[in-house]
């Protein structure tokens, strides 16, 4: 009875997070789950209202072509509630998401800014949210979407602000989470005289096509925080469905997983896509878990509640996380079709971020590691093939490898050679294998997940989390001294 009550209590708060979108009937599950993995930073609990102003700052379409005079308007959010003229500018860098007020209204960065009477500024990355430089988002136009252009945009925001008398002598510090933490490291490398210091939370730095270590850490998180029984449910169920496909029982697998009629059970790409979708849904839960809240243990309890049969429980759990659709759409051609549709029908972030992975970073979470519970049925080839089929012949697997190698040469991978940058990672953050480690001076917070250190100092913080938050506050004092 206690177990049943626990599950009922969990379903209510978790149900809202299960809804990845309110109108997604035509969006393939693969696109939805990838977008969920790249959502914005954890929402901060706001205890008091802040006066957040929206400003639009003119940016060049191409920051590196003097002959190109095209401009566009970039959205920036500003909170000056604590600001005193001449005090520092605290920039929170936007990444592959639409910005909203909470990161500059509450949280540890806000607390630090308040200590220094700082102005809080949240920049929106080009081609995300409401900051779209050019349409349609064809391959030709997406040539303006890269990290160098985005960093130059941030520098321009700083320059525009400093034209105002009150900001004329303000020092600038930046913070970022995930990809925007990558930017926080690299902006200090490219523009060391503009920024006095950076805090990079969960920054991936080593561009990589086959990011097989990601799912390995996800599996580790389920084993450590959910228990062996939870890991085994996922492992057993995945093996069951893989065996069905491998032994010619494809139609049975399709039925049990409630896959849509147009799913071709004999098509390799469709098979890859269903297994990657399952893994990505479960990875999203691990990526943003909070050990203090026993998040993964709770999700594992819900998983088990659907059935005592592992395969049935996993199928029903996945459908529940997708808001119980009529059928699960993981058709490869539908994914390609959606991305091509999104070129002319802007959807917020999915296409523009996927382009960056093809053109700059990779980071394709594959089943390449044997030490994870998600099987071996979604190679990185699934994603490189999608790049080529969506963006054209310039994005073959070999060319993507070349682009990524060039990016690592420019920025140094996990050894960026920068000063006044504080890098933090959760010990169970699936992204930490491509980030700086202890050997590179990063702080590793045991059992913490992705961007998990952004909240205000709390009684729930582990000793390591508390020490890291205190450390970044002290470093900011030193940078601004």
UniProtKB/TrEMBL annotation:
Q: Name one GO biological process term.
A: proteolysis
GO terms of molecular function: dipeptidyl-peptidase activity; serine-type exopeptidase activity
> Signal peptide span per the entry?
1-17
List the Pfam families. Peptidase_S28
Q: Which UniProt keywords apply?
A: Glycoprotein, Hydrolase, Protease, Signal
Tell me where on the tree of life, at the top rank, the source sits.
Answer: Eukaryota
Gene3D superfamilies recorded: alpha/beta hydrolase (3.40.50.1820), Serine carboxypeptidase S28, SKS domain (1.20.120.980)
Family of this protein = Belongs to the peptidase S28 family.
PANTHER family from the UniProt entry: PROTEASE S28 PRO-X CARBOXYPEPTIDASE-RELATED (PTHR11010), RE36938P-RELATED (PTHR11010:SF5)
Q: What is this protein called?
A: GH22293
The organism of origin for this protein: Drosophila grimshawi
């Amino acid at each position: 009875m206690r177990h049943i009550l626990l599950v009922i209590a969990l379903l209510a708060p978790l149900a809202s997070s299960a809804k990845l979108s309110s109108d997604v009937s035509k969006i393939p599950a693969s696109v939805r789950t990838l977008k969920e993995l790249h959502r914005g930073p954890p929402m901060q609990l706001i205890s008091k209202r802040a006066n957040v102003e929206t400003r639009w700052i003119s940016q060049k379409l191409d920051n590196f072509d003097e002959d190109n005079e095209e401009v566009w308007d970039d959205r920036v959010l500003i909170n000056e509630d604590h600001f005193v003229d001449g005090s520092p500018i605290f920039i929170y860098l936007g990444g592959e998401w639409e910005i909203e007020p909470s990161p500059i209204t509450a949280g540890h960065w806000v607390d630090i800014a308040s200590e220094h009477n700082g102005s809080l500024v949240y920049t929106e990355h080009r081609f995300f949210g409401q900051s779209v430089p050019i349409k349609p988002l064809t391959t030709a136009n997406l040539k303006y979407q890269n990290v160098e252009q985005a960093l130059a945009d941030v520098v321009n925001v700083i320059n525009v602000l400093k034209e105002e008398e009150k900001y004329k002598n303000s020092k600038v510090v930046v913070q970022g989470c995930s990809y925007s933490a990558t930017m926080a490291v690299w902006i200090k490398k490219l523009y060391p005289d503009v920024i006095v210091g950076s805090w990079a939370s969960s920054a991936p730095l080593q561009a990589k096509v086959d990011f097989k270590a990601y799912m390995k850490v996800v599996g580790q998180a389920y084993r450590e925080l959910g228990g062996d029984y939870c890991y085994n449910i996922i492992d057993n169920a995945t093996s069951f469905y893989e065996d069905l496909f491998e032994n010619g029982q494809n139609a049975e697998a399709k039925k049990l997983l409630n896959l849509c009629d147009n799913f071709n059970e004999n098509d390799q790409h469709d098979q890859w896509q269903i297994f990657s979708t399952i893994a990505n849904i479960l990875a999203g839960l691990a990526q943003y878990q909070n050990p203090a809240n026993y998040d993964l243990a709770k999700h594992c309890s819900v998983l088990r509640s659907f059935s005592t049969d592992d395969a049935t429980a996993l199928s029903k759990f996945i459908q529940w996380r997708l808001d119980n659709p009529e059928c699960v759409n993981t058709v490869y051609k539908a994914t390609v079709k959606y991305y091509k549709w999104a070129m002319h029908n802007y959807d917020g972030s999915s296409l523009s971020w996927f382009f960056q992975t093809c053109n700059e970073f990779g980071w394709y979470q594959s089943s390449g590691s044997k030490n994870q519970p998600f099987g071996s049925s979604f190679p990185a080839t699934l994603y490189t093939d999608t790049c080529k089929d969506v963006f054209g012949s310039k994005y073959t697997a070999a060319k993507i490898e070349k682009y990524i190698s060039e990016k690592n040469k420019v920025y140094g991978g996990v050894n960026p050679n920068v000063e006044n940058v504080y890098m933090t990672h959760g010990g169970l953050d699936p992204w930490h294998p491509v980030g700086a480690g202890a050997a590179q001076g990063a702080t590793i917070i045991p059992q913490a997940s992705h961007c998990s250190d952004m909240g205000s100092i709390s009684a729930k913080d582990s000793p390591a989390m508390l020490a890291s938050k205190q450390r970044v506050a002290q470093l900011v004092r030193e940078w601004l001294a």
